[in-house]
Design a protein that fits this description.
This protein has 253 residues and is an alpha/beta fold. The protein is built from 9 helices and 9 strands. 51% of the residues lie in helices and 14% in strands.
Length: 253
């Protein structure tokens, strides 16, 4: 019997780390990718299935291509594009180099890995791709303009691919995870403080994997964020922008 295998980016902490734990508990072998080799090694030691770790900075476009070449013959069944980070502040004042790195990781890495693995998956007519976006993908994000925009890209890309795959009657499945606040180290990297209590990364990871394996396209953990998504479609953009600005302003440290 073929042993199933998953590749997870951003696997050294937060949702990515907990997704690795969930999939290992289900019997999946894993390829875990992140910059922090020490944390990857700690995670590998606790998991029961076979784990390969790759320490790599995926904000470097060339590294994304190198990663694919390194693992393309390893019969990967699930690709989880989880690596990403955020930043808060007025667009006029935030650091441009940090934002460009964010675009490289949050958009370009997801785009490249999705495209390369999707072609392989379609050729063999099987596989899952889970792209980690955010509830921020659903509206404009004043004071987190770049981050919200990157997550909107991931969200719309995944939905578009779903329809393309449906049109060709492919058995490849794509899903988009859009959580609200989650208790991870995101806040420290983004230099912000959520006022709304976040979900645990363990819960979000388990929920996401379960829904992905049930072929759910849009995965939104938590009742409150589901309501935000539903009612947000009926709120005028200018009002949404005002609301979002006030929310983001309260997050600023």
């Amino acid at each position: 019997m073929k042993k199933l295998k998953a590749l997870i980016t951003g696997a050294s902490s937060g949702i990515g780390r907990d997704m690795a734990r969930v999939l290992s508990s289900k019997g999946y072998d894993l390829i875990l990718v992140a910059r922090n080799k020490k944390e990857l090694e700690k995670l590998k030691d606790e998991l029961k299935t076979n784990v390969e770790i790759i320490s790599m900075d995926l904000s470097d476009v060339d590294n994304c291509k190198k990663l694919y070449e390194q693992v393309k013959d390893k019969n990967i069944d699930i690709l989880i594009n989880n690596a990403g980070f955020g930043n808060i502040g007025s667009f006029r004042k935030t650091d441009m180099d940090k934002e460009l790195s964010m675009i490289d990781l949050n958009i370009k890495a997801v785009h490249i890995l999705t495209k390369l693995f999707l072609n392989d998956f379609v050729e063999r007519d099987s596989g899952y791709i889970l792209n980690v976006s955010s509830a921020s993908a659903f509206q404009p994000g004043p004071l987190m303009a770049t981050y919200y925009s990157t997550k909107s890209y991931v969200y719309h890309l995944t939905l578009a691919l779903y329809e393309e795959l449906r049109h060709i009657k492919s058995n490849v499945k794509v899903s988009c995870l859009c959580p609200g606040p989650v208790n991870t180290n995101f806040n420290e990297v983004a230099n912000c403080e959520f006022k709304m209590e976040g979900l645990s990364s363990e819960y979000v990871a388990k929920y996401a994997i379960d829904k992905m394996l049930k072929n759910k396209l849009l995965i939104i953990p938590g009742f409150t964020i589901k309501l935000v998504y539903i009612f947000g479609r009926f709120i005028p953009n200018k009002l949404k922008m005002r609301i979002t600005y006030n929310i983001q302003h309260r997050k600023t440290k």
